[in-house]
């Protein structure tokens, strides 16, 4: 009965338009006329209409997009809620928003066709995405180890997940944050997203991710740690290579963090940014925000510990050094006065060793040590 009804409905497509133009329908056979009369009388007095329904298709894409976004937010939450200022003290975990403090940020300004440019200071890391002088769909964020490249990406993830009002990502449909050290021998970026970001969502496949992303009006991609990428500076034909050279996601906003520039990237379409560390204002802000709260005595205690050793004071311009020093000074009495710089470095090396070992244990990551 359903097949017969479908055939009859197909015969009736656009009949009113055809009569209006003077076109006469060919007469149906007697059996078809009888069947049509039976279908019509059993349901309604109106003539059946053939309608192409797209609601179900749209609904499926919309539903899967919501599933993807929720899965991404769950994954990012586990990352930004697990900041360890002192890597080997695992019981000290912080949300990134509770400890993030901006250091200095600069962009590389080149005028006209000049070969060389100059580094120009901006007010905030948010200017990387909003300053018209740095506006581009491709940017590279450079800094040495310990200057907070990964922390910036986690703060951006926090902003997106929580809809922070003044965040440059608040209107972005989807944020993709991938750790490149995990992506060795993985050609498809959609497979990487499935494996490392939404593995806990069985209703989303790699093909769904591709379909959803291609339909989005706004996607932000953060590729963290090119210098740790197992396939760096190789021509593998992977999606990561194609994104960096702007052959994939051409219209999407992509930021790459790294200690050095890739050999092959979209040079004339890429803006360069660098993080330059903590000045005294940033250090003071970190102590107050992450450690002391409103306790002025703690603030002065940590400042005095730094002033007691000018060499440490210089070293603590590097954010990771300062963060470790500040927390160790506050949390351990015997850290408050180091007998020598050697003693300080002994603990720094212990922290770095644990930090790198943790990275090397990531699934699909080559050993770093």
UniProtKB/TrEMBL annotation:
Residues 140-290 form the NACHT domain. Residues 1-29 are annotated as: Disordered. Residues 1-22 have a biased composition (Basic and acidic residues). InterPro entries: NACHT_NTPase, P-loop_NTPase. Gene3D superfamilies: P-loop containing nucleotide triphosphate hydrolases (3.40.50.300). This is Putative NLR family CARD domain-containing protein 4.
């Amino acid at each position: 009965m359903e097949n017969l009804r479908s055939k009859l409905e197909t015969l009736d497509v656009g009949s009113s338009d055809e009569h209006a133009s003077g076109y006469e329908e060919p007469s149906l056979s007697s059996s078809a006329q009888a069947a049509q009369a039976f279908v019509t009388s059993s349901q309604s007095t109106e003539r059946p209409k053939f309608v192409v329904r797209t609601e179900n298709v749209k609904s499926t894409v919309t539903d899967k997009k919501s599933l993807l976004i929720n899965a991404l937010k769950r994954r990012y939450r586990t990352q930004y809620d697990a900041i360890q200022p002192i890597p080997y003290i695992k019981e000290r975990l912080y949300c990134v928003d509770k400890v993030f403090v901006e250091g200095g940020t600069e962009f590389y300004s080149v005028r006209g066709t000049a070969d060389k440019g100059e580094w120009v200071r901006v007010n905030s890391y948010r200017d990387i995405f909003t300053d018209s002088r740095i506006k581009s769909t491709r940017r590279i964020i450079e800094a040495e180890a310990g200057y907070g490249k990964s922390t910036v990406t986690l703060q951006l993830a926090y902003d997106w997940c929580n809809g922070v009002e003044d965040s440059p990502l608040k209107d972005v449909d989807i944020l993709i944050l991938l750790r490149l050290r995990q992506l060795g021998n993985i050609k498809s970026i959609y497979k990487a997203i499935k494996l490392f970001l939404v593995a806990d969502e069985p209703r989303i496949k790699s093909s769904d991710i591709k379909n959803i992303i291609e339909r989005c009006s706004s996607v932000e991609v953060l590729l963290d740690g090119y210098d740790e990428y197992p396939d760096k500076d190789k021509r593998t034909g992977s999606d990561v290579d194609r994104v960096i050279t702007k052959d994939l996601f051409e219209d999407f906003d992509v930021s790459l963090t790294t200690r050095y520039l890739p050999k092959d990237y979209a040079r004339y379409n890429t803006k360069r940014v660098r993080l330059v560390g903590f000045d005294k204002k940033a250090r003071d802000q970190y102590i107050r925000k992450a450690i002391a709260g409103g306790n002025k005595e703690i603030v002065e205690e940590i400042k005095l510990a730094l002033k007691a050793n000018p060499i440490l004071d210089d070293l603590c311009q590097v954010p990771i050094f300062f963060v470790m020093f500040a927390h160790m000074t506050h949390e351990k009495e015997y850290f408050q006065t180091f007998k020598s710089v050697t003693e300080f470095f002994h603990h720094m090396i212990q922290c770095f060793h644990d930090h790198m070992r943790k990275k090397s244990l990531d699934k699909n990551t080559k050993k770093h040590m």
